[in-house]
Specification:
By secondary structure, the chain is mainly α. The protein has 5 helices and no strands. The longest helix has 12 residues.
Length: 111
């Protein structure tokens, strides 16, 4: 992940624009997992990607990766172990502010 993308993602998490939810990239109520926020930053159309309302980890449609069910753009941006760890933190109650701090400290950026 490049530094600009990481910084934009962190800023989006801290912006207050996104209501936090669990277990899905984006819920039918419009709540986002931290990874759903990254999808928004990446410009992924979660409706078109056929993942809205689908739990992370379920395989869906042709717009998603073969394993994991995440949109290809998300798979390309962030390693599986990192996606998994952040999803677990999100789903276990870590706030977007807390997650932004974890991302700043642990997500490696390409020079």
């Amino acid at each position: 992940m490049n530094k600009e993308l990481r910084d934009e993602w962190v800023a989006a998490l801290r912006s207050g624009k996104y209501e936090q939810g669990q277990d899905q990239l984006k819920t039918s109520a419009g709540e986002y997992c931290c990874l759903g926020v990254l999808c928004e930053v990446l410009g992924v159309d979660l409706e078109r990607a056929n993942v809205n309302g689908v739990k992370v980890g379920e395989a869906t449609g042709t717009e998603t990766a073969a394993l994991g069910g995440d949109p290809l753009e998300l798979v390309r941006a962030l390693h599986y172990k990192t996606r998994s760890r952040l999803a677990k933190l999100n789903d276990n109650g870590a706030s977007f502010e807390e997650l932004a701090g974890v991302i700043e400290k642990t997500v490696r950026v390409k020079p």
